[in-house]
Amino acid sequence: FILIDPMLGKKGSMPPFSVIKAKAAKNPTVEMPSNADELLNKVTHTLITHSQTLGIKALQHGDHLDPAGETFLTSRNIPVATPAKDKAYLEKYDLTVNWGIEDWQTIDFLDGKLTAVPALHGHGWIHKVMANGVGFFLELPNEPSIYISGDTVLTD
User: Fold this and answer.
1) What is the per-residue pLDDT across 32-76, written as a single tens digit (0 to 9) for each?
2) Helix %, strand %, coil % of the chain (to 5)
3) Which of 18, 24, 69, 151 suits a disulfide with 6, CB 3.0-4.6 Å?
4) What is the pTM for the complete model shown?
5) Domains of the chain by start residue, with CATH
6) Is the peptide bond prior to 15 cis by the omega test (within 30 degrees of 0)?
7) CB-based contacts of 55: which residues, under 8 Å, 6+ apart?
8) Are strands 134-139 and 146-148 parallel, antiparallel or unpaired?
9) Rounded to whole angstroms, how far apart are CA atoms 130 and 151?
């Protein structure tokens, strides 16, 4: 099983992502499904599309890796694939980053191929603040291929 952008905290365990809304909800906004433990016990690898801005922990993108997700990955030593720019940051927090992937790089992954597709997290000044990450194109033998877009906006 491949886990993508692990946000595993209890409902309401993190602050809202928007402070502009009058009634901004704490995150996550829902509880994990009742079979979450059963599914998580099957996880062998993780993809993280992006995780940090400027290397500052307080600016970590909790919607891609929250404290519960971080604990889950480190306690089980689960191998991670992530953008190359995030590799050293995640290793600083004891994650097992086996693959730091450059934009458009294709690597061997689980007897198949994994390609990092650049993502644009916003337009104008906001994209500099939001830490552009990647999406992933995953091709595994005898399985349908899948594109995980990550946080991106549509562009020409």
Assistant:
1) 889 999 999 999 999 999 776 555 554 556 566 888 999 999 999
2) 20, 25, 55
3) 69
4) 0.83
5) 2-148 (3.60.15.10)
6) no
7) 89
8) antiparallel
9) 10
